[in-house]
Structure formats: structure tokens, C-alpha cells
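As a warm-up, study this chain.
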Amino acid sequence: LPVLGERMKVAWIRRSRKDVVDSFGKTGIEQPAKNWLAANLYWLAMRIMCGLTYLRVPASRRASLEFDEFVGRPAATLEALAGDLDLDLADAVARARGEEDFSVGWLFEGNRIRKQPSIAIRPRVTADRNP
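Now compare it with the structure written out below.
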């Protein structure tokens, strides 16, 4: 994929269909709500396009991770990503451990976060899982 260059590495953060569809069902936020069918079709189209793009990147320069794992254990997930892609993510790991904000970078596809100057990734604590 010449447009990506030889040095670019790609991380695909995947989210479950159900969570994406539920997110699009929210009202009262800047992103217009989608009905169940439209949200499912959107998820499918994005999954296909992102998957095809991801597969065109050489395996040594790509990694994928699950959104829930990333939100549940941000520092550990970033450490694993750093190992998978041979990247120095020490600053990002430290930010995640300190629950500091991250600047929003370039996104291939995303939702409301792409309009924010920064985001915070806070570990989720659930009854059945501790970060």
C-alpha cells in the first residue's frame, strides 16, 4: 500500500457490533442517532473497509486489539501493542497509568473522539473484572 509508506504502522482497535450499534442509538449527543438497521449496516461497511485496509498492510507493521481490552487495561494493552509493532510507547504507557489525557491523532475511522483535542482512557471497573 504505497500511500501508507514503508514506515507507517497500523493499530486497528476493534469494537463489538453490539457496542457500536448501542452507541449509535444514543440521543442528545452531537452525533446523530442511527436506527438499528442503519447502525448495523454502518458497522458492517466499516468492518469490511477497515479489514481490507488492515490486510493490505504487511503483518510486521500491523496489530489489532479489542476496544474493551484497551479500555479495561490501557497500560497493559499499550505495552503489548508496543511489543507487537516494535514501538517505543513508554510515554503513552506512563500516561495511561497516570490516567492522563492523550492528544487525538490521525484516525482512519472513528466517531466523536475525532472532534476532540484530547481524550482520557480510564480503566473500566466491572463486577466481574478488575483492571
